Amino acid sequence: RRDGNPDSAMNYQNKPLLGNVGPIGSMFQAEDGARSDILDRVRRCCSLTKPWLEPPLGQTANDKLPETYQSVGSRGVNNLEGKMLMDLWPLEQSWFQLLPSAEIRFDQEVISGQPDKLQAVYDKLFLMELLIQAKLESASLTSGSPFGDNRSGFRSRKRMALSYIIVTGDTLEQLTDEYRVKVFRRSQYTTMRDSSGDVLHHTVCEAIDPLALSEDQQSKTEFNIAELKEKRAHERLCHIYTLVEWQPWTRKWVITQEVNGKEIVVTEEPISPFFSTPYELSPGENYGRGLVELNLGDMTSLNELCKRRLDLFGLATKGLVALDYAARVTEKDLTKPPGSVIRARVTDGKAMDVGVVQFNVSMESQLLSNGIETIGNSLGKAMMIESETAPRGEAGRSPVAWQRTAIEIDGATSGAYAPIADNQQVPLIKRCMYQLSRDKLIPAINPKLVEIRALTGISAMGREVQARKLLDYTQVAAALGEEAIARVNKGVLMQVLARYRGINEPGLIRTDEEMNAIQQQQMAMQAQAQAAEQAISTTGAVVENAAAQSAVR
Q1: What is the pTM of this model?
Q2: Is 290 exposed, middle or buried (0-12, 13-18, 19+ CB in 10 A)?
Q3: What sign does the dihedral 69-44-288-271 (CA atoms) show?
Q4: Which of 115, 166, 209, 327 could form a disulfide with 353 if both were Cys (CB 3.0 to 4.6 A apart)?
Q5: What's the CA gap between 553 and 550, in Å, rounded?
Q6: pLDDT tens per residue, range 484-493
Q7: Which helix H or strand E contains 196, and what residues bound it?
């Protein structure tokens, strides 16, 4: 790197941190220096949208960030973030589905011979979905923090990740042992991929307080802990380098951390807690390219046109006053308050000594406005800004038009980030399932027996569609008569409908054992009622016979 300090841009005012650089730190600096042109392009994209995502090289905390002359870029990024966030991780809805593997789901022997057991597997996986989603969404970045409950939750972190994906084209995240999502800035990590795009390794550089490490790890750093305790927190900061490397012979990830040039942690993981998401990855490249880079030409042109129009408006409204060389009016006279009397040469009620300098910029202004409108509309459509893509006029008042537009936007976003859904959701769920199993919160599951299906866009409504199909089928069966409706297992129907609708209220739906107990109770009550009726009938008959015999006598 050109400044040798990856974190100096904003956080540490270019001050060197404590500690030496070891093998992992040297690897990070070598790979980071080799991609300086890539980071320059990333900073260019950020400068036109959100400069704080990746500030200019050498930026300090008190330096002024680059200013733009248009807001279409930042508004477009915010708009896409919101749409993608609610599409990938909708509120109060499942955003993924766990299914038995295809070999189990479509095994004819299981379907015909053990349908109840297969439904029980579906129910267990559904409960596991709810646990995973609740665990991720409830995790706090400041859990146990002495600074209070001001926390940034799951979706806040995911929105930040989407910002990096859209603007810079790439991001790296980590699921911590506390089930919190950590997002890294582009200058904080490097990635190496093979020709097919699979990750070979990541290197990550962070700043930490060495006193936050465990005692065993502190001893491995060879820092003088007694001296560190006498310093303030910002004076104790040091770099921690992390290498996440795939080992093809063991089929596992080896994670090594280094502080002060010393290894402090080496772990082996079957599923990596680090996962990267490129927006658009070309073969042979290590980093993705974002939507902003794909529209960098229009965004740069729009920014320049807006700047020139602003300069033109400033020239047109400059308001320069010209005084004739032989004028009796002085500059001091022009600064007098309104209503004052000054001496000047007057003809036909007009002061002839004073004039206002005017610039005729109407034609240039019209050309600039046309160019800004054209490019702005193009960018608005590319970034799905509602004001640019929504139907207008009388057509905009039609519910059919709005519904069609919503479907088009959903289809466009789903197509644009299909790889994002795969890289954002599936690795996260796999890692979360592994950690829950490791922490004994769920039973150990063979990953080969479970299929993870991301529910995004229109596909997120898949369960609702299945529920409607079941209800339609039941209505058809009821219309065909008692024999047809008798073929429908109502208990399974209620169970499946509750799962598709995401209903999990304990005690709401009775189990088979409870239903059998209720049926037996009803049968017993019915038998008692029949016995009582029989007793009454018998008693009545006896009384009638006795009365008849008395009458004969």
Answers
A1: 0.77
A2: buried
A3: negative
A4: 327
A5: 5
A6: 777 777 777 7
A7: none
